[in-house]
Amino acid sequence: MNDEYFMQQALKEARKAQEKGEVPIGAVVVMNDQVIGRGFNQVEMLNDCTAHAEMIALTSAFNTLGSKYLMEATLYVTLEPCVMCAGALYWSKIGRIVYAAPDEKNGYRRVTGAVSPFHPKTKLESGLCGEESLQLVKSFFQARRK
To answer: Mind telling me which residue stretches traverse the membrane in this protein (predicted)?
Structure first.
């Protein structure tokens, strides 16, 4: 199993969100080649502005491990995390974050600029399956505007 496989798992979560009328963002937390947490946006379903895919996937992973730290884990998420999610990722001490596409409007970089909001040991990668992720989000918003 590789990064592409796990990002495809995150994209499956994003499609679940889309099917439920949510912005199609998905996330999975992986450790030792096992998915230990999954999540998709549930902001509308739960009427909770904090119910982002990353937050739900992190909570699931914490519960699976019985731990509040994820130093050996990787988060795969379909869109650049927002500042709120970046804060949660910082406190989780997650080892690695792989996000598919940038989020110019709401991503953490809009607020933090060149300063990383993540734990100093967290590795960060982006661009994997970026076009597929962006297409999901674009098609979602195009359909809503009709």
So the answer is: none
In a domain, 78, yes or no: yes
Q: Is 49 annotated as a binding residue?
A: no
The verdict on whether 131 is a catalytic residue reads: no
The per-residue pLDDT of the chain, averaged, comes to: 96
Give domain status of residue 31, yes or no. Answer: yes
Residue with tokens 């990383």: 116
129 in a known ligand binding site: no
CATH number at residue 43: 3.40.140.10
Task: Encode pLDDT of 63-86 as tens digits.
Answer: 999 999 999 999 999 999 999 999
Q: Which one of the listed residues 54, 72, 104, 125 is annotated catalytic? A: 54
pTM above 0.90, yes or no: yes
Closest CA to 95 of 133, 122, 56: 122
Based on the structure, what is the number of domains in the chain?
A: 1
